[in-house]
Amino acid sequence: MAMTRVAIGGLGAIGRVLARRLADGMPGLTLACAAVRDQEKARAWLDAERIACPLIEPDAFPEHADLAIECAPAAVLERICRPMLEAGKRVMVLSAGALLPRPELIELAKARGGQIIVPTGALLGLDAVTAAAEGQIHSVRMITRKPPRGLVGAPYLEANGISLEGLNGPKRVFAGSAREAAAGFPANVNVAAALSLAGIGADRTSMEIWADPSVERNCHTIEIDSDSARFTVSIENIPSENPRTGRITALSVLAALRKIHTPLRVGS
Length: 268
Description:
This protein is α/β, with parallel strands linked by helices. It folds into two domains: 4-121 and 248-258, 3-Layer(aba) Sandwich (Rossmann fold), CATH 3.40.50; 126-243, Dihydrodipicolinate Reductase, domain 2 (2-Layer Sandwich), CATH 3.30.360.10. Helices cover 33% and strands 24% of the residues. A five-stranded parallel sheet has the order 2-1-3-4-5, with helices on both faces. Strand 1, helix 1 (13-24) and strand 2 form a beta-alpha-beta unit. The model has no long low-confidence stretch (mean pLDDT 94).
C-alpha cells in the first residue's frame, strides 16, 4: 500500500487527537511533520506522548508531506494551505469559514492540480446536501445553539456590544447569512461554511446563532428544502477541551483520512 505522508498545522485540541492516532498507526498513513506557533510547548507535549514528529514551518510542508491538515486558528489558514496547493498537493481544511473570503485558494487548487478537502466536521447530513445540490435546492436554514462560554470572544459579539454575562435564558445573538456568520464567529461556525459550500452558497444559506445556558452541548439543526427531498437533521456535539469545538470534529477528520486507502468507502 502506498503511504500518504500527513502534516498537521496546529497541535491544539484537534491536532493532538490526530497526532496520537496517526502515531499509533493508521493503514496507509504516516505522521510526517507538524507546524505550531509555540514549538517549545509542542515539543514538550510530543515528547511526553512519545510521538516522533518534526516541527517545521508551514512553507516546508510540501517537501515532507502529501496531505496537510489545517486545524489551527483561521488567521493562519493561508500559511498552511497555499504552499501545498502551489505544489499541487492536498489540504484538509477545518477552518471552512476562512475559505469563503479566499476563493483564490480554490482557483489555485484548480490551476495546480491540488485539492481542498472539507470534512464533515461537527455537522451531519452533508452527503444528503451535496446530493440535493445535484438537483435544485430551494432553501437552507441552520440554527446553532451553544453554551455561552463557547461563544465568548466572538468578533461579532464584541463589535455589537453583546454581553453573555449572567445569561439566564436562551438569547439569539445572530441572524443572517452563513457568510456573515463565518466572519463574525470564525471559531464557532465553520459548520455553516461547510454547509454553504456543500449546498447553495454562503449568501443564500441562512443562519441563526443562540447562546443558551440550558445546553451543555453544541447543537446544530439544518433544514433543507429541495426538488428531491425535504429534510431536517440535528446533532448535539459534546465539546472538546476547547469549548468552541466538538469532540466529533477530530473524529470526522480521522474518518476522512481512513477513506483515502480503505477498500470499502461508505458515503458520497
